[in-house]
Amino acid sequence: MATFVDRVTLHLTAGNGGNGCVSVRREKFKPLAGPDGGNGGDGGDIVLVADPQVTTLLGYHRSPHRSSRNGQPGMGDMRSGVSGETLELPVPIGTVVHDEGGEVLADMTEPGMRVVVAPGGQGGLGNAALATTKRKAPGFALLGTPGWTGDVSLELKTIADVALVGFPSAGKSSLIAAVSAAKPKIADYPFTTLTPNLGVVESGEVRFTVADVPGLIEGASEGKGLGLEFLRHVERCEALLHVIDCATMDPGRDPISDLDVILRELERYPVPEGQTPLLERPQLVALNKVDVPEAAELAEFVTAELEERGYRVFPISTASRQGLRELTFALADVVEQARAARPAAPEQERIVLRPKAVNEKPFTVRAEGGEDHRFYRVRGDKPERWVVQTDFTNEEAIGYLADRLAKLGVEDGLFKAGAVAGSTVVIGGDGGMVFDWEPTLTSTAELITSARGTDARVGGSSRPTRNERREDYFERMDAKAAARAELEQERVSGLWADDDRDDQD
Fold first, then answer.
1. 146 inside domain
2. pTM beyond cutoff 0.70
3. Residue 236, domain CATH
4. N or C: which end of the chain has fewer CB within 10 A?
5. Angle (nearest 5°) at CA 236 between 232 and 241
6. Whether 374 and 473 share a structural domain
7. Of 140, 125, 135, nearest to 396 (Cα)?
8. Is residue 224 part of a domain?
């Protein structure tokens, strides 16, 4: 049984970046010839690609978990790690991508359109890349950052010019098979069509696509039957063709009542903001199965009433192909008019590259936790990324992180926020790295290490005079004499005895 899926949630995990390498080059007569650790490779991205050859999201419904490869770690001799391969996921044209919050990330309306939905992690720098004139042989490297992990939702909305709507077994699949090269499933029972079918129709010099939507029933807008699940595929169509079964034997049904039911369901279906409501789009009526004498008589009877409502009516027969030529030409005219009325594509916007404002800070510092449990949270792309890249088992790497944060101005920001030595600092959100802040002397926080108006680094450093050295010597001699006298008094009192005398006894 054919299965069609037009909504799916993907669980994506992009590749992690590889760690940098710590290595020292060794040559003959040069045991320590300098650092030569290579950089780690970047993690692979996950990219969605609009592919005309893909028509369903079924493959992702069966295996929604997708991940790209990790970047390889760097190696010695200046060899960088291999970056992870980009994972390309083909999706049908017309797929709308949503994030976890429901915001639209992309609308894949053009063939070949590419969207990076899960960027890979950044590879860490090796010690060769971290070497400077002041740090000629770093004993550490940066770690790779993790790739993006999360969920994205895919929703397929078929892109077609004309949508065929009607009750089950009205002949929509037979019609699309008769006017195009499409080969949908056709049978003599309801709900034969379980998936939207697309067909390309050429009428004169006009070429357009037709979508066969699964049959609608009364209450489809409320979730009955299969119609509601596929009404979203009608959103992008320029015109609607009502296919009405004139040979139905079901009690209580006739062409007029069938059309009224379909119109009510289309009216209740909410279209996205900015799109034309379904009933305000061009609509034609095809009275099908007129090859049956009773159906032909009924079609002739209701044509006048339908034309009074403003519809263009076409009696057709998919079996004998009666009226199909006139119908396709009429649809071509409607599509051509809709395309002409469509607003012209806006001119390509000029891309303006503006530098960041000089006063824009790359981080924020905020006090949290109240008076009793106050701590200071630092948020920003750079500080949070630097923390992830730091190997906290390496003291030199921790010192490098402190230097980077101080250069960025984090310590000055903490001092202005009210932090003092020993304050708890969290870099990142929930689960971020927690520190006990020890300000460096190069920051404005040096002021809190001594009394106001003084500087602990500036103090008296004069040499002691001869008299000061003599007084210090006499004080030490007096202290030694007092200690010897105390020991002698304890011995006489019997608190302890000499070992030599005990041996003699």
1. yes
2. no
3. 3.40.50.300
4. N
5. 90
6. no
7. 140
8. yes
The phi and psi torsions of 489 (rounded to 5 degrees) equal -65, -40
Q: Are residues 133 and 199 in the same domain?
A: no
Per the annotation, binding residues are 166-173, 191-195, 212-215, 288-291, 317-319
Q: Which domain holds residue 33?
A: 1-156
pLDDT in tens, 424-477: 899 988 888 888 888 775 554 444 444 444 444 444 456 778 888 888 888 888
| Dist CA 349 CA 329 (whole Å) | 38
Residue whose tokens read 């119908």: 327
Question: What is the distance between the alpha carbons of residues 473 and 498, in angstroms, rounded to a whole number?
Answer: 30
Domain boundary residue, one of 156, 174, 197: 156
**What's the domain count of the chain?**
4
Give, in order, the Cα–Cα distances in Å from 86 to each of 59, 83, 120, 480: 19, 9, 9, 78
Q: Report how far residue 390's alpha carbon sits from residue 428's, in angstroms, rounded to the nearest whole number.
A: 14
In terms of domains, do 199 and 108 share one? no
Classify residue 353: in a domain, yes or no.
no
Beta bridge partners of 95: 108, 156
Structure tokens given for 466 = 């001869």
- Residue where the block lists tokens 């008769």: 178
The verdict on 252 and 331 lying in the same domain is yes
Please say whether the beta carbons of 75 and 86 come within 8 A. Answer: no
Q: Which pair of tokens denotes residue 124? A: 């860490």
pLDDT digits (tens, 9 = 90+) for 294-347: 888 888 888 889 889 888 999 988 888 888 888 889 988 988 888 787 665 455
Sheet holding 239-245, edge to edge: 197-203, 206-212, 162-165, 239-245, 283-288, 312-315
Query: Residues comprising the binding site for GTP?
Result: 166-173, 191-195, 212-215, 288-291, 317-319
Residue 500 corresponds to which tokens in the numbers above? 């030599």
Question: Which parts are annotated binding residues for Mg(2+)?
Answer: 173, 193
Q: Does residue 498 fall inside a structural domain? A: yes
To which residue do tokens 């390889």 refer? Answer: 72
Amino acid at 505: D
Task: Read off the DSSP letter of residue 137.
Answer: S
Is the Cα torsion angle 354, 358, 362, 366 positive or negative in sign?
A: negative
Cα 430 to Cα 11, 236, 378, 427, 434: the distances in Å are 22, 42, 11, 9, 10
What is the rounded distance in angstroms from the CA atom of residue 360 to the CA atom of residue 354? 13
Q: Which helix (H) or strand (E) element contains residue 98?
A: strand 95-98
> Is there a single domain that holds both residue 129 and residue 210?
no
Q: How far apart are CA 447 and CA 472, in angstroms?
A: 34
